Every structure is written in structure tokens, then in C-alpha cells.
Amino acid sequence: MASRDQPIIGGKFRKRPVTSVLQAFTHQQLGFRSYQHIWQLPSSVMEMMDEKLSKHGMPQLLSKINELSRQGKSKHKELLEFLKMLLKKLSNLDCLRRAYSEGSSHDVLKENCQIILDFDGINLILEILMNTATLPWSKYSSCENSEELLIKNVCLDILRRFFLLVEKFGEKLPYTSDILNYLFTLLVYPNAHVNAAHVLELILNSHKEMLDLNTVPNLKELISVMDDKALSNFCQILSVTISDLDTYEHKSSLYQQNKQKRSKGFFVMRDINQECLMSIPDLLPRLVHIVETTPYQPRYPAITNELDTWMQWIDNQMAEEDESVDVESSLDDFIGDSVNLYCDDPQSIMHHSLKMATHVIHRVEVFYVLGLFLVGKQRKKVQKQLAELKLIPTLADIFDNFIWKCTSGKIGTRRLRGHNSSCECSPEVALKIQFLRLVHSLCDHSEHKHLLLSRTELTELKKLNEGAGKSKVENFDVPDKSLMCRGTKGLLTKIVEVLKKEPTASTFRFWLARAVESYLRGSTCYADQMFLLRRGLLHHVAGNLIENDVRPKEILQSSFDLLGELIKFNADAFRQFERVVCTDVKFKKLVEMIERNLVDSNMFIRSLILSLEHLQTEMSTEYNFLFQEENRLLEYICNFKQQVSFLQRLITIINVKSLTQENVSCLNTALVFLMFAHKNGKMNSYLAALKQCAVRVGEKNLLANFRDLLVFWQDHYLHKDKDCSALEKSSRIKFETWKDTVTMMLSTDQKQGTSIVHYLPEHDLPRDN
């Protein structure tokens, strides 16, 4: 442990006479790194400094805290009071309210922070936090309200405030195992875990290197003694240590990420940390238990608007609150004075209001962490375990508590200050989004997706499968009925019903559509598609696109992706789509939307070409019927010139350096066209047409760019750690066919009409390195 002579922050101290030190302070010639021994100065000199430099009593306050911290437990009570005084310099509600009304709260707080930094106050706080006796964390309940623990909590709160108020404060703190491990031990204490989790999260987010959880001593034991509140707060730490946000230096470029993957010594710490956590047998069960048992309020039968519901609840709490309640004490008791609120009347800040908001936050954190477990290497294992823990019926019950109508449209409806009448902001926005993300991850290529149905709906699905003809799924998996949704409607149906009622530009349309799409992804099942078509989903999504001229990119993309999954390989879906685009005007509008937003619509285009090939080869009778019925969608994708136009544009809008997770699908869609072209003996025709098209539109480097993209494709998809099963299942094309087609087009034999180099001019031919 660092001593005061070996400070945690700062360099060596050069002793000076008192007068010269004061002079240096007066002329502001010293930085805070030179103040480690300022506490050796007499109190009279400290008082002179404060008076001369107008430091508002801060030097004397810090000097007193330093003095008390060295006098043992007998002075703990007094030390705690002085630390609270220091904390109030950063957070006192009355002070903040006055400063806020004058428009200078930020300046006031920053000035106080700078004084503390200048007088080495942060070193002092860290030393008090770390140098007091070690708490018996294995028996934390016995010291829940000890003065020592309260001292630590106030120190943590001071550090947390500095993170919020001082830019890049985390870079000024040391990133040592001693500090991190000590903060981890504080996570088990009811009166310290909130601030300990906040400070830990802020420290971890301030550094590029992700923490290896295997290096945290006694992690399993720490988690085992956490209560539900502490474990919920611990999810803040988990969200930092098992996320992939910091895995790559380049957050979006797949090209740069591939280069980093191939570099020597590269490893994904997220996967290591997930494996560490999955070795704790009761972690997932406890997280599911928190989801199940966290109270869900407020709800009033007569109020159908979410924001009005919350406002009514707050009004009720204010009416019931005892006027004698000490608001600041209430805040301190509950969350360690870790919330600041600006308001016209501080007495309106309610203990119960904060508690309810915390319940919502707890659920958000747990939903988010469960979702992170479902996107790592442990995904299949986690999906199975969560299914067995009956998480899906629990989510279905929680969904019933959501109120999706956030605005009532009535004049005078109360809403947050500065928010317009169409705003969807409410305390539950983040909760709903993380809920839907979790559903998406639970269903994505999952063997347990039919648990989203009720028993009645499963019976309907089985009948649909029996009548599917050639599309029937043999050995239809029947899930354990005890794990399914209760009642007559499962979670999937509930989500669909909400999606159909959501406004066109609603924030939630994207997430609702993504959740349903994930249910359909993977091996396409006719019965699943028909189950949703029966509930009017295709008609609603396609109609919404055409009738409302949807503009938001996220809603466009999620709508086209969902439509692609609904119609893939399904002749009945093509017929239903025809009823939506039943006029030339509507169909033209759809086509314009597809071609104007090619990145967003490319998965829909892929479904069209996959369906065309399937209907021609596997369902020729249905294919002929559709043509006789003049199905617009089928005629559109059958056109050779249209296919070449799609190919040309899909290749043009991307290049190796611009590839991201979002647009790499354009490359795979282009490959689908060409795989079928090769299968039907027309590869030469398509490549030749591409060359002519490039000349016509002035894209001289089109085929050279395509060749570079295919080289990238090999590097990206043929890597040993890449799981390509999803690509194979969703297209019904064996991955060997994908690989062989790319290899064929990358052949260096210029005589081969199936090789891109056959069509390249001499100056664009690849050169040997």
C-alpha cells in the first residue's frame, strides 16, 4: 500500500519554507502535484492561505480531515461529519439549487473540485478509503451501519462526484490491482455497494484495457454473499467486462478488425470473462430470480397512458409523504447520497420515488447483462440454461405490465420539461428496449424459440406444419410444455400485437420488429411464417412501409429484414404480399423505396432471389401458379436486367475499407445472385453483363473492387474462429458452395469465363507481391 511519502497521485515533494510556499500559492505557481505534504503546514498558515486565495475554507477543512484520519477509531464519528461537509461542497442540494438558478452550477462545482485537487485532497480521500482497517466482508451484515463503512461510502461518493465533474478524472487515478480489488470487496456491503459499483464502473470505463475477472481474488465468494441489490449493482461491472465494445480499436471497420484479429497476441477478453462467470453455477439463476421478484409499479386500471401513470404515482407519494421527513437524510440512508436532483422544492424528492426508479434501473442492468451473455461464445449454453430457468414465461408476464402508449394526445397531458407532445420519454424506455434486446438474443438461431408460444399456440403451429406439404418440417421439435408461456397468448403474439399498434416513427418499432425477426431467423420454417401471417403481420409491416413513406433508417431496415424472413421460400407469403401491393402505384412506391435504400433493403432482396430459386427448383407448380397470377414481386426479381442492376449497385456501394457489420450483408447478397448464376450455368453472362454495366455507368473499377471484396470475404469467413452456420441455415446453401464460388471467381486463370480476372483490363490485374 502506498504511504503518504509515496503518494498514490503525484511526484516528489520539494520542501520549501512556509513563506515561499505561501508565495507560490499566492502567485499560483504550483500545480496540485506539488502539494502532497501541505498538511505539514501549521493551521495558522492554512488559514492565511484560505484568506489570501479565497478558497472558501476548503484548505482548513481538508487539513482537519487529514488530522482526524490519523487519530484512530476514536475519531471516526467526527471524521465522518467532516467528510460529509466536504461532500456537501460538491453536492449540497440548497447550494446546487441556488447556483442552478443563477445559471452557474457547473462553474461552482468545478471550482470546488479544482481546490480539492490543488490541495491534494484526492490523495487524502484515497488514503482514508484504503488505509482504514479491512472490513470482515464475509460477515458484512454485522458491520452494515458501522462508522467505518459509512466513512468509506462517503469517500466513494466524493470520488464518484469527481468523475462526473472533472474531465478525464479517471486518467488521473491509478489503475492498480490494489485499488480495484479493494473496491470489489466493498460491493457486498448494503451501505456501500451502490457507490462502489459506480466508482468501479467509471474507473474501468476510463481505461482501454479490459479487466480480467480471473485476477479478482475470491470473486466467486464475493458474488455468493451479495444480496439481490448488490448483485444488481454488480451488473454495472459485468456490463463493462463482458461487453465487446472495447474489444477492437476500430469500432465499425471489419477490415481493421480482421487485421487486429490476425495480430500476434490478440485475444478477446470478453470471452475469457464470460467463461469465468459461467463457471459460477448460481449466477444465472440468481439474475433470473431478480428479474422475477423485482417489484413492478406503478399501475392504475383507469389510466392507460404510461407517463400519466408515473405522474399519478408521484402525486400519490407526495400526498402521503410526512412533511417532517429529512430529504437529504432519506437520500443518504437509501443510496448513500448518490443522486442529485434540481427541483423547485427539494422536499419533493421522495425516498420511495428513488426506490421505485432504482427497481427499474436494476431490471435494466440485469436485462442488459443477460443479453451480453447471449452474444458470446457461451450463447447456446446460456440459451438452454435460461430456457430451463423459465425466463421466457417470466418475460411474458413482465410484458403484460408494460404500457406502450406513452402519449395520450389530450391537451394538458403532463410531460417532462422541454419535451414536445410526440416525445416518448418515460422512466421505462430503457427497460423496454433492453427487454426486447434480450428477447431478440434469446430467440436468435435458438432451439428453444417455440417457448415464446402458449400451449394453445403450439397446437396451432403443429397443425400448420402438418398441412405444409413439401415445406413440412419432419421431426418437429416439441418443447417442454412446463417451460412455455402461460395463458392463451404467448410472448411472441403479445409483441406482434403491440407492433401493429405502434406509430410509424415510434422508437420501439425497430426493437419490436427485431424481436420478431429473430424468432424467424435460422432454418426457415413454413409453419412459423404462417403463424405470423395469420396474425396480419406481413400485411401490417408492408402496408406501413408503403402507406406512410417510412423515413427513419432503423425502422426501414428492421421492416425490410422482417419482411424478408416472412416471405422467404413461401409462396403463400408472396400471394399475401401481392394483396398489399395490389396496384401499380403501390408497387412502384415499394420498388422506389427498395432501390433508394439498398443497404437497408438488401436482406429483403436476398430473400426474393432465394425464394425465386427455391420455387423454380423445389416447387415448380407453385411457381407456375404465381406467374399465372402475375405476381408483381416474383416478376420483379425474375428480370435479368434488374438482377444485374442490383448486383452492380450492391458492389458499388461498398468497398473493403468501408465494410461494417451493417453493410457486409450487401456482399453476401451479391454472392447469392452469383451462386445461383453458376448453378444455372450463367456465371459468364452475369460477369460480362456487370462489365458492360460498369462501362455504361462509368464505374471503371467495379470488377476490381468486387475482387478485393471477395479476397476480404475469404479472410473474414474462412478464419478458424468464424461460425458460418448461420449463413448456411438462413440461405439453405451449403457453406462449401459459398466457399467454392468465391474461390472460382478469384481464380487467376484469365482464360476462365467464371473468373473476374477474365474481365479485367491489364492495368487492373492483381500483382504478385
UniProtKB/TrEMBL annotation:
It comes from the Eukaryota. Pfam families: DUF3689 (PF12463). This is Short transient receptor potential channel 4-associated protein-like isoform X2. It comes from Priapulus caudatus. The gene is LOC106811930.
